[in-house]
Design goal:
Number of helices: 15
Radius of gyration: 19 Å
Strand content: under 5%
Largest sheet: 2 strands, antiparallel
Distance between the termini: 57 Å
Strand order of the largest sheet: 1-2
Structural class: mainly alpha
Helix content: 55-70%
């Protein structure tokens, strides 16, 4: 399958415009960006996902590394532009959005936002995202990229921890919805310590760390200190 070159929308799409945009993506005004991006590995992975009928959260682990590798050298002002991520989700890879959150591609986009045979109802934010931390954490592609960016930075090549994060959707949501989710050290510690736990334990630990942020400057703690803090909280619960 052939995919278009890196572009972004001229204007962001609203909730009211989304169904029409998904029906006729070729009519959406876009601008091609002057950045040379190697999409080969990403496009091969997308084709593999579709060919092998991979759906739901399993898509995250397959997609996060090639997506981040392809885009990690783009300038920050472009990466935080939601028009770029809407281009990915509405024009370049809308089928992946449906497969990830609905489990199947609807015959008509309007059907995809309603309960019915062959799939679940999904939220428009999975296509559109938003300018806030929460918005970046909900767009299907931006959420993967920024999770990897926070865990790795620009030089780290080890994606094992990133894939591990996406084995726990509860943990990813807990991190992406909070300000401390912007701290790479907190992301790494929480993923190492919590990714294999139950949703209930993950939720409890994330909430406690959030409350402790009022007493500790989390950005001044190193990873060892953050780990000790989590262990102290766990020990207090067990006492």
């Amino acid at each position: 399958m052939t995919y278009p070159k890196l572009s972004r929308l001229i204007s962001s799409i609203s909730d009211q415009e989304l169904i029409s945009a998904l029906r006729s993506p070729s009519k959406i005004p876009i601008e091609e960006l002057d950045h040379q991006i190697d999409f080969l590995a990403l496009d091969e992975k997308v084709d593999e996902i579709i060919k092998n009928n991979i759906t739901d959260s399993a898509i995250d682990g397959h997609l996060v590394e090639p997506l981040h590798r392809a885009l990690k050298n783009l300038p920050q002002e472009l990466l935080i532009d939601m028009r770029l991520w809407q281009w990915f989700s509405v024009i370049r890879h809308p089928d992946l959005v449906w497969l990830r959150w609905r489990g199947s591609v609807p015959v008509d986009p309007e059907n995809g936002f309603n309960h019915g045979k062959g799939g679940r109802k999904i939220a428009t934010i999975r296509f559109l995202g938003g300018a806030s931390i929460n918005g970046h954490g909900r767009n299907t592609f931006a959420r993967l990229f920024f999770a990897a960016e926070r865990l790795l930075g620009r030089d780290n090549e080890d994606y094992d921890l990133v894939r591990r994060l996406f084995t726990s959707q509860e943990l990813h949501l807990g991190i992406s919805d909070r300000e401390f989710g912007l701290l790479p050290s907190v992301n790494r510690v929480l993923t190492r310590e919590l990714a294999d736990l139950t949703d209930l334990k993950v939720r409890s630990s994330v909430q406690k760390l959030n409350s402790l942020g009022g007493s500790f400057c989390l950005d001044l703690l190193n990873e060892s200190e953050l780990t000790d803090l989590l262990e102290v909280e766990a020990n207090q619960d067990a006492a």
